[in-house]
Structure formats: structure tokens, C-alpha cells
């Protein structure tokens, strides 16, 4: 699975995290300790943290004049990993042309830094993940670290039946405005749904009866290798994607991209001022540190029981006692432990999307291992542009695939397509 993941570009940091000639940053990706820095010309370099001379950490390095200089013996490396200065040996014994730092390709688009850790000489194109094509001023980007395996985090996004409990377990139909489609998730907490493989991964469509011969649909996706699109938003304007980037086996960086000027997908406050949904897009972070695991950690975590309020849980104000949607998801998936023991699970009919996605990912990883053929979407980044999620109501009797094709055909496309291959 690690080799499989290396075939794809990974969203790794926000552009704003690296300043030209600023401090080198520790970056943990796919179990590798890396250093990221921005050189004097603005280029981003990402490389193994160990200096290829005698392995002192380049974290201690001096970011100066278009390169990172190791403080041990002064060797200097540019953003591509070339050794450009070797001042500790006499000039006639200089062998800097023979030394290279283990550097990975980095790319930047609309405020997001991507890293390619595969072994192709020419990296594949950046994936056309729709929200990542929006200009930086129109894209909301959130990073949040999660203390568990990436798949465990990801599976929360494709587990549709938890919504009616974890997030709105305390709600009654009367709590919602009559035009709020979310009320169907409370009206029927055990939806039926379809699941299928799709060119970008897997797709599900949960459905419930709506009024006057209509069906309330909620579509969501898994996209290779670690992306999801959740159903929480009106389909036509729901331009968003969520990446579960493995830092290592036990830690994940969640990267949430969203169309900033889309109309809000949920109405958290009712007209009379009562709180309807405990949404919190502004996360309560600990201060970032320079540690390998020091970026974008929440204040609420296992050590403080995610701030669970037992009184609110008991008196029915908040089903979980945990006050905000993201934190509710964070708490349940972290509470499973770093890597859950799948032998202990009992998957039910409501978990078909999870089972299908595990199988799809395993089959794709095995096919890559056995044939070496490029995994889905690596050379054809366009498949991701056909992937959309969200809810809508359609008259009864429309086949779910037709319903999807119809909605995706008329959906808004706010992001300009990139001009040339990158
Ligand atoms: S260890 Fe980096 S220059 Fe010697
Ligand atoms: Fe959730």
C-alpha cells in the first residue's frame, strides 16, 4: 500500500507554512522524516532530513542563498537536492557533483504544496481534485492532525449511518426548518443505499423517501488513494474534498479543501437562534511546534477525553457530549486506538461502502504490485473531475446512476481548469 500511495502526489503543507529563506520545517510523510524549505527564489525543496554526508539533520540547516546548508561541515543543497557547495574539502578534492540529497519533487498550486515520493523520473500530472483548482482566495484549506491510521480516519467519511447518531443524535424532525434537507437524516436514521466501484474509487448513494413522490439522495465518494467527498452539502455547489495523508502508520494529516464562496452547506443556527448543528470550521489548535508531529494538533484529544461533557450527554443537549462535528469524528476514530483490530469488528449492511472501499483499495494495490500498471487516476487525473458528492431531491423512480449523471452534468464548475500539464 505504501508503494501504491507513492504513485500519487500528496498534499503536504500550506504554502503559507514556508517563507522564503525561512526556517526549515520538519515534515513527516509516509513514515519518512523529511525537511521542507523555501529557497530565496521561492522554490520549495523537500528532502530526507539526513544530510547525505554524515547524516546530521538538515533541520538544523541554514536556509541561505537558494539552498540549505548543513551546519555540521557546511555542505549545501539546492531545492532539487544537488550539492552546490562542499567547503570542508580542498577545492581539488571536491566531489560535490557525485553527492545528492534524497530530494522529492514538490509542486505548488493555489496555496497548497504537493509532494511526489514515487520513483518515476518525470512525475505524473497533479491530480485534478476539483477544489484544489480554485484560486487560493476562493479555497478554504484546513489541516488537522489525527492520531490514528489514515484508513481509520477516512472510513468515518464514508460511513453514512453514523451521521444520524454521532452528529445529530439529539435532534428531532421538528428541530429543523421545513426547507432544511438535513431533516431527512433524522426522519430516517437507517437509510438504504447503493454502492459501486467508480473510475475514481468507490461511490455510494443513500436514499430516503421525501415528500410528494420524491427521493432524498445523498452521494459520497472514495477517491484514490486517500481522498473522500462527503454528502454534507447541496450537490450542485458542493466543491470539496478531504485527504487523509499518512504521516506514518499511526498518524494522519487530514487536509480539507472547500470552495470558500459556496453557500453554507448546513444551517447551524435556526431562525430563533437555537444551535442546530455543532459545526466548527475554525479549529481549536495547540500552538504548532517544530516536532515531527507538531503541526496542526487540536487542543482536545485523548488526553483530555476530547472535552466530553457528560452532563450535556445525559440531559440530551448533545448526543455525544462532544461539542462540534469535526471533534466528534476525531474522538470516535482516535478512540479505536492507532490501528484498529479489524478481527474485532462486526460489519453490518450499513457498512457496505466501507467493505467495498477496502476491497477496491486492496485490489488496486495488489494489481499495481503484480503488474506495475499505473494505479487509477495517476496518469488520468481527469477521472477525479467527474467525482462529486452532496444531496438533492429527485422524483421517484430514477435509477441512481442516471440521477448522478444528471446532477453532475448540471453541477456548477467554479474552478478554472489548469492550462498546461504541470
Ligand atoms: S553531515 Fe552535513 S555536511 Fe557533514
Ligand atoms: Fe462524521
Low-confidence stretches: none
The main β sheet shows up as:
8 strands, antiparallel
- Measured distance between first and last alpha carbons: 26 Å
Residue-averaged pLDDT: 94
Characterization of the model:
The chain is globular and about 85 Å long. It has 8 helices and 18 strands. The model has no long low-confidence stretch (mean pLDDT 94). The chain starts with a helix and ends in a 12-residue tail after the last helix. Strand 7 (76-77) and strand 8 form a beta hairpin. It is α+β, with helices and mostly antiparallel strands and 422 residues long. Bound molecules: FE2/S2 (inorganic) cluster and fe (ii) ion. FE2/S2 (inorganic) cluster is lined by residues 51, 53-54, 56, 70, 72-73, 75.
Concise overview:
The chain is α+β, with helices and mostly antiparallel strands and 422 residues long. It contains eight helices and 18 strands.
Amino acid at each position: 500500500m505504501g508503494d501504491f500511495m507513492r504513485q500519487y502526489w500528496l498534499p503536504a503543507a500550506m504554502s503559507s507554512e514556508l517563507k522564503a529563506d525561512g526556517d526549515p520545517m520538519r515534515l513527516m510523510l509516509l513514515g519518512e522524516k523529511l525537511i521542507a524549505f523555501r529557497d530565496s527564489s521561492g522554490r520549495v525543496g523537500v528532502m530526507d532530513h539526513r544530510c547525505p554526508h554524515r547524516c546530521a539533520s538538515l533541520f538544523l540547516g541554514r536556509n541561505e542563498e537558494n539552498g540549505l546548508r548543513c551546519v555540521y561541515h557546511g555542505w549545501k543543497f539546492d531545492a532539487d537536492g544537488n550539492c552546490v557547495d562542499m567547503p570542508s574539502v580542498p577545492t581539488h578534492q571536491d566531489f560535490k557533483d557525485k553527492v545528492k540529497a534524497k530530494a522529492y519533487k514538490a509542486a505548488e498550486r493555489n496555496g497548497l504544496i504537493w509532494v511526489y515520493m514515487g520513483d518515476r523520473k518525470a512525475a505524473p500530472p497533479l491530480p485534478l481534485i476539483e477544489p484544489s483548482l480554485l484560486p487560493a482566495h476562493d479555497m478554504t484549506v484546513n489541516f488537522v492532525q489525527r492520531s490514528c491510521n489514515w484508513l481509520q480516519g477516512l472510513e468515518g467519511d464514508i460511513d453514512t449511518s453514523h451521521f444520524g447518531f454521532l452528529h445529530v443524535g439529539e435532534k428531532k424532525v421538528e428541530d429543523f426548518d421545513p426547507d432544511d434537507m438535513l431533516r431527512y437524516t433524522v426522519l430516517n436514521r437507517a437509510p438504504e443505499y447503493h454502492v459501486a466501484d467508480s473510475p475514481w474509487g468507490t461511490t455510494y448513494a443513500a436514499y430516503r423517501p421525501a415528500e410528494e413522490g420524491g427521493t432524498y439522495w445523498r452521494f459520497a465518494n472514495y477517491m484514490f488513494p486517500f481522498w473522500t467527498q462527503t454528502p454534507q452539502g447541496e450537490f450542485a455547489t458542493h466543491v470539496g474534498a478531504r485527504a487523509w495523508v499518512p504521516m506514518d502508520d499511526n498518524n494522519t494529516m487530514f487536509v480539507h479543501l472547500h470552495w470558500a464562496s459556496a453557500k453554507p452547506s448546513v444551517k447551524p443556527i435556526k431562525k430563533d437562534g437555537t444551535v442546530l448543528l455543532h459545526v466548527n470550521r475554525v479549529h481549536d489548535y495547540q500552538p504548532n511546534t517544530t516536532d515531527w508531529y507538531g503541526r496542526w494538533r487540536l487542543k482536545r484529544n485523548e488526553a483530555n477525553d476530547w472535552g466530553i461533557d457528560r452532563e450535556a450527554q445525559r440531559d440530551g443537549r448533545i448526543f455525544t457530549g462532544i461539542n462540534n462535528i469535526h471533534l466528534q469524528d476525531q474522538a470516535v476514530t482516535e478512540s479505536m486506538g492507532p490501528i484498529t483490530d479489524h478481527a474485532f469488528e462486526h460489519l453490518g449492511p450499513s457498512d457496505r461502502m466501507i467493505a467495498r472501499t477496502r476491497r477496491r483499495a486492496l485490489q488496486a494495490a495488489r494489481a499495481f504490485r503484480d503488474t506495475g500498471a499505473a494505479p487509477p487516476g495517476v496518469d488520468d487525473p481527469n477521472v477525479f473531475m467527474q467525482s462529486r458528492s452532496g444531496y438533492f431531491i429527485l422524483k421517484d423512480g430514477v435509477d441512481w446512476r442516471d440521477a448522478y449523471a444528471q446532477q453532475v452534468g448540471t453541477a456548477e464548475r467554479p474552478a478554472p481548469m489548469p492550462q498546461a500539464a504541470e
